[in-house]
Write a structure and sequence with these properties.
Elements (H helix, E strand, L loop, with lengths): L10 E5 L7 H11 L7 E2 L12 H18 L5 E6 L1 H12 L7 E7 L7 H6 L8 H5 L4 H8 L4 E7 L19 E6 L3 H4 L3 H12 L10 H10 L4 E2 L9 E5 L5 E6 L5 E8 L9 E8 L4
Parallel strand pairs: 1-2, 1-3, 3-4, 4-5, 5-6
Antiparallel strand pairs: 7-11, 8-9, 9-10, 10-11
Helix pairs in contact: 2-3, 3-6
Length: 291
């Protein structure tokens, strides 16, 4: 495992996401690297319009940038920080280049819909349009978990209410072996360059670890639901659901069917904090019917 060492050099990759350019992610990259001195930073600008089309050319472009970095700095380790779709791009790049894994110190995903964007699936439920919605709706959790089992990975998420950052539901950014840090009140676009995000990244860099699998009841139940490739969404309709199964530790599985007869599933655990009222706290939300 590669640990932080002041004075040691590394290559830092920063990648912006959908409907964006490189300005903000470049600013974040420079703010978290300035304490290390002269650090090579690559933040490829994909072009705002290109991010609305298909993801394959974007992956190829960033991959070529990585190859350029290898040629220029063959002995330096990598640190990767990516926002939203940028995280999906890097998952694809690392998946197709496992020979690069030993050189990666850490991977940081910020608000990345690893399990598939619910908005992307809603825009293209049948996956027939050759645009970015189909690519954003794809479930990349198996890829992410394979990578996170070998590379220390951090997933930064934020909740502005109902388990979403306004664009990406919390559940879509969670996956096995990744450390998850949840912030409060930061919208999706704000996450790409915010002091709280920078602080979390720098703290993770001090001790990047591979997170062991959780074996509690709720984690196992969520894993079973995710195996069905449900569409993870916000929790705003949790109050309409009925508990259909309870477990000894207080974990519950809930179900609600909307007017379109689409089944929604929720997982809750008992409120544990002294400041919380007694009851059930939703920790997972998803629905069937949109793939």
């Amino acid at each position: 495992m590669l640990h932080e060492s002041f004075g040691s050099r590394f290559v830092l990759f920063g990648q912006h996401g959908w409907a964006d350019r490189d300005r903000d992610i470049n600013s974040l990259a420079r703010s978290i690297a300035n304490r290390y001195g002269d650090i090579p930073i690559y933040t490829p600008n994909l072009g705002w319009l290109n991010t609305w089309l298909k993801i394959a050319p974007l992956i190829n472009y960033v991959e070529q940038t990585a190859q350029t970095a290898i040629a220029a700095y063959p002995d330096l380790p990598w640190r990767i920080v990516a926002h939203s779709m940028g995280g999906l791009i890097w998952l694809e790049i690392l998946s197709r280049n496992p020979q690069w894994w030993p050189r990666v110190h850490s991977l940081v995903l910020i608000g990345s819909p690893v399990g598939g964007s619910d908005l992307g699936r809603l825009f293209d439920p049948l996956r027939i349009f050759p645009l970015i919605a189909r690519d954003l709706g794809r479930n990349r959790r198996p890829i992410a978990e394979a990578i996170a089992a070998k590379i220390p990975t951090l997933s930064i998420i934020s909740d502005i209410g109902h388990h979403t950052d306004g664009i990406v539901p919390l559940g879509a950014s969670q996956f096995a072996h990744a450390q998850v840090v949840q912030l409060q009140g930061l919208r999706h676009a704000t996450l790409k360059n915010h002091p709280q995000v920078a602080a979390v990244i720098q703290q993770f860099w001090q001790n990047p670890i591979i997170t062991p699998l959780s074996i509690d009841t709720s984690a196992q139940l969520i894993a079973e639901l995710r195996a069905r490739d449900l569409t993870e969404t916000d929790s705003r309709n949790f109050g309409k659901a009925k508990a259909i199964k309870s477990y000894d530790d207080g974990t519950k599985l809930w179900e609600w069917e909307n007017l379109l007869r689409i089944q929604h599933f929720y997982v809750s655990v008992p409120n544990a904090k002294p400041s919380e009222q007694a009851g059930d706290r939703c920790i997972y939300s998803a629905y069937a019917g949109v793939r």
